Amino acid sequence: MRNILFVAAFCLLSQFANAQFGASIHQSNLPFVGINYQFKERFLPELRIGTDNYFDNTSLELTFNYIFKKDENVDVYTGLGARVQILDGIVVPLGMNIYPFTKDNFGFQMELAAIVGSSDPLLRGSWGIRYRFAKE
């Protein structure tokens, strides 16, 4: 429920922005929501906030992703980032965004991310939805 409220509030606020902002919800053992800003058609930095946990255990991630394969309906990206709080360390995501509809704002995503740091290395797989707010 908290994820839905977060995305709804972000949708309302983003209507006033003149940029290619986006929001995503990733489902996995370490679920999170993300806010991103795509620029120059290839760069996709994203701030990610851990969900389904106590506020004291909320983790933050910041990833800088590069879209290396882009076609009409699919974006494939990789990147580098950092994670703090729970399971902190370096994050190396490899993912795919799929936009199957004629209006390509709403889509699905899959991601595999290595988290390497102070704890044991972890390989996280996630899937979810992604929404891109249209440029004006």
What is the arithmetic mean of pLDDT? 85
Looking at CATH, which topology would you report?
Porin
Q: Helical residue percent?
A: under 10%
Which outline best applies?
A: globular
Provide the gyration radius in Å. 14 Å
CATH C-level category: Mainly Beta
Topology of helices and strands:
Blueprint: H1 2-14, E1 21-27, E2 32-37, E3 43-50, E4 60-70, E5 74-84, E6 89-98, E7 106-117, E8 122-132
Keywords: Signal
Protein name: Secreted protein
Signal peptide: 1-19
Structure notes:
- The protein is 10% helix and 56% strand.
- It contains 1 helix and 8 strands, in the order αββββββββ.
- It has an 8-stranded antiparallel β-barrel with strand order 1-2-3-4-5-6-7-8.
- The radius of gyration is 14 Å and the shape is globular.
- The N and C termini lie far apart (30 Å).
- It comes from Imperialibacter roseus.
- Residues 1-19 form the signal peptide.
- This is Secreted protein.
- Keywords: Signal.
Give a nutshell description of this structure:
The protein has one helix at residues 2-14, and strands at residues 21-27, 32-37, 43-50, 60-70, 74-84, 89-98, 106-117, 122-132. With 136 residues, the chain is mainly beta. The protein is globular and about 40 Å long.
Looking at this protein, list some descriptive labels.
1 helix, mainly beta, single chain, 136 residues, Porin, eight-stranded antiparallel barrel
